[in-house]
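Lecture 7 notes: from sequence to structure.

We start with a single chain of 213 residues. Read the sequence below before looking at the structure.
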Amino acid sequence: MLRVNEIFHSIQGESSHAGWPCVFVRLTGCNLRCTYCDTFYAHDEGQEMTLEEILSRVRQYPCSLVEVTGGEPLIQQDTPLLIERLLKSGYKVLLETNGSQDISRVPSSCISIVDFKCPSSGQCEANDLENIRRLQAHDEVKFVIGDRGDYEYARQLSARIEEMGKQVTILFSVVFDQLNWNQLAQWVLEDGLRVRLNVQLHKVIWDPHLRGV
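Now the structure, written as tokens:
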């Protein structure tokens, strides 16, 4: 059983898979309380569903890409089992996780998108940096940046990831309505970083405060 906040079909707004149709399985609950959280409603709202009920809902959509997200999906015990079932059913599966949980618990063919927290989130100390060692080549690392201090933290941790030989996609995003995209782009270009700007497409396509997109 898993506590599920919502299941919906939309356009993937983030990561290197941005722009592709995707089914989102948003699980309830999070162990962090980031200052800029845009899914606070997922902290408590949800209903208990069996794995079969979740799979049945996912199958209703003509889509082969699924993202398991939250909240923080890995705080629920059966999340790795859900991912395994989705993979065995032929889906390509993305896991959006906040960086505080051990990503080695999920099947190796799942693509983990690890959202390491920067200082302005207020949750930086929760990062499990052992996850750097656990990264696979197809995984991705995301930093949500609200100010110059966040940028410097992300820049330094990105360098550490590279020094450890992890050739993964690194995504830099902004805290919505807090930092301008052009400012972040300027910093990245000035420092010659090998990172990808991660514009939240769903907030461009739809009202940025709209749920279920």
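DSSP finds six helices and nine strands in the chain. Keep this in mind for problem set 3.
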